[in-house]
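Weekend entry, working from home. Most of the wet-lab plans are on hold until the incubator is repaired, so I used the time to fold the two sequences that have been sitting in the queue since the last round of cloning. Logging both here for the record. First:
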Amino acid sequence: MMLFTTDENNVFGKSLKEAGTYNVRVTSAVAKNSKSGNPMIEFNYEVLDGQYAGAPIRYDYAVWNDDEDHFDLSVRRFNTIMIASGIPSGKAVDNLPQVASVMKNRKLAVTVDWEQSQNGNWYLRVKSYHKLLQEGSQPNGKMRPESSQNSRQSNFGNNRNQSAEYRQQAPQAPNNGFNSQTNFNAAMPTNGQPQRPQQPQQPNVDELPF
């Protein structure tokens, strides 16, 4: 009896590289409080189909704010998420832990786009919710923008290359410390340090407009 069949779409370490609209499953839904004390749910998802099947979408916070200015928006936001996941109209909701329990493992579609964090890096954030796409997930080709950190490193590298070029063109003084200019250049760093993969950063939920 066969144990399993190898499948390139069923592997660890997959990541989402494009913005777009994706069919997802809710892998976790946890009720908690924001730093300001407002109740919220943290949703995490997994892409269901297409080239990014299995890739996670993390840290989608839905915050409940029942003050006069935000109550209607809070109701609409949670209603949008639940209806998109196939929950029918007419269901009474008592509290957010109830919503979290009901939403676990449900399926819907989410639209994600790149958003720059306070540290200058870019991460995919959920922008809207939809019912499952019958035609499958739809990446839109929009890749991660260059972060300010990478931009600074790129400019540093360009300036360093220009300095090296100037050294090669300038008249050379007598060599008192190295056998040759080639050895001097070999002693200078020419490449930047390897970059660690950027990890999704949790957004500041107290800055969300709902």
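Second, folded right after the first finished:
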Amino acid sequence: MAERIPELGQTPGSTVQVWHVPSDILPISSAEIERWSVDAQGGRHWILSERPYDDAILDSLKSMEVVIWGPERMARWIGDAVLAGELVAHSPALDVEPPKEQDEVVHEPDANRTALIPVVDLESWLIQRGWEDANASPVLLSARLWTVEGILRGPEGDGEAGIWRVVEDPWSNSLFPHEPEEVLPHAPRLRVLEPDERDWSNIRSLPEELLKLLDRRKKGEPNDQEGSVSSIMLEWWRLDSDTAVLSDAPIAIPGWIIEPEGATPQVLHGRNGRLYEAD
């Protein structure tokens, strides 16, 4: 039993019966649905089917509220839950690992890697493009979390120590401040996609894009003027590059491999909603 199921509302005190249809070669038939409805109780029902089906098979069910999710919808829902940190999957430990092909490249999830929360709503994104039936497999996109320690200098040479954390996103060739509240409590153990090596920036050279994120404007000393009115100017405090110490750690951006019917698979960025080439 389930107290609240998507697409069936949230009527207080009303339960939903959940059914599972195992995988098979043939789709669900109208005759099977009719036989099931004879034994099923009235009320609301949620059928999770590993077999395809035609929406028309529900036309004969007038006295019951029934929602069916097919294989694609189930996979997409599970993938979203994994990326959002609401579902954690663990593989059983095996004493003997199967042999791997010599040319196979496997990117194992890094235990120290954190992951950002997704911003893109996959379901809405697919609907907007007419790709409701596209396969979507959740993955992680490799990125780097940079920690910068150093001293900001004011116009008069005054110094103020600080620590900053910046995310380097090689997929969009951008840098942005790291916000702790945008990190998943548990990073999902998914396949990690690596970008082209040329897409990584030389952050240790302190590029202009990084320095702009670290600059601060602070109130200066009041300007003495004749009379009772004085003004306070905002002054730029900038990083003293000679004091900068940088370190980096792996971080991941959520994403999906999108496979539209008849089209080349592409990588959907879970933060900016853009598509990138999939190797």
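Plan for Monday: verify the second prediction. Residues 16-69 form one domain.
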